[in-house]
Amino acid sequence: MSTAVHAAAMAEDAAADLRRRMKDKRAAIERRITDSRDRAAAASSAFSAALLEARSIANQTVSNRGISNSWPPTSTTRLFFSPFGFGFALLSNLWFTKLSEQKQHLRKLESDLAQALSVQASRRSKHKFMTESISNTTATNEHLRHLAMDRRSTRDECMNAISNQLKDIESLEAESDANGDKSLETALMWYDKFLGFQVVGGEGVKFVFNKIDVQNPDKKYSFCINLLEKDTSTLKFLFLSITVVWCVPSVDDAEELVKDLNCSNDLYKFVRAMREMFQAATISGILCYIF
Question: What does pTM read for this prediction?
């Protein structure tokens, strides 16, 4: 009895387990069916969209090629609307698209090539210009270097010539100074010996004569001159004038001779005139001595 009950219980458990598994399988199958339906609907929608796009492309291609869209369709139209026609239209459209892209790419390459050639030509022109400029600069530098060398040689020649001339001038000046000193000494000795003329310095310049009076050749006649500064209030500057400090013996026309001396500044003429006046006064006997 217990064995039969146990077997019945086991059978019920097995049946319950079978029902549960069948339920699970049925739910899984239903899910698969739902997923398949969804995928089919999505594929159908995509196919419909692709078909519409293919038809529009085919219609555009047909219109571009001048094929009539009248109904009923001709054999050519039926060819385009057939699966093979749609494929051919799609391939044609893709081919034209690729061809357009290739043309644009080739145009871009051609433009880039032209730009590169232009840049290359510009660089060649700049290189040629720089080469010519460098050549001209080199030639100019060489010419300037030769000019500088010529100028240096000319300068050296001039310096040598000037140095030689300076040496000659120095030697001539030395000879002239020696001869001049000798000539001056000779002239002073001659004036003193034959004319009795002497010049003595001090406060002013003293001129002494003798050999004027024939009867008394050793008799001395002298005068002294000095340079004075006079302030002229009207002209507002210092005026330099020569005046006779004293004259032994005195002569009447000495003042006139001094005025002429201040106008002409000819001292030699003044000295000769004073000696002549001494001689004339001695001959006429009108000299008077002032001490």
Answer: 0.34
Q: Is 82 left (phi over 0), alpha (psi -120 to 50) or beta?
A: beta
Which residue ranges make up each domain of the chain? 196-284
d(CA 209, CA 267): 16
Backbone angles phi, psi at 221, to 5 degrees: -120, 130
CATH, range 196-284: 3.30.457.50
> What is the residue-level pLDDT of the chain in tens, covering all 291 positions?
567 666 677 777 777 787 888 888 888 888 888 887 888 777 777 766 766 776 777 677 667 655 444 444 445 444 444 554 555 566 667 777 878 888 888 888 888 888 888 898 888 888 888 888 898 998 999 999 989 998 888 888 878 877 787 777 777 767 666 665 566 667 667 777 777 788 887 777 888 888 887 788 888 888 888 877 655 554 444 456 777 778 888 777 788 888 888 888 888 888 888 888 888 878 776 444 433
Question: Which positions ≥6 away from 189 have C-beta within 8 Å?
Answer: none
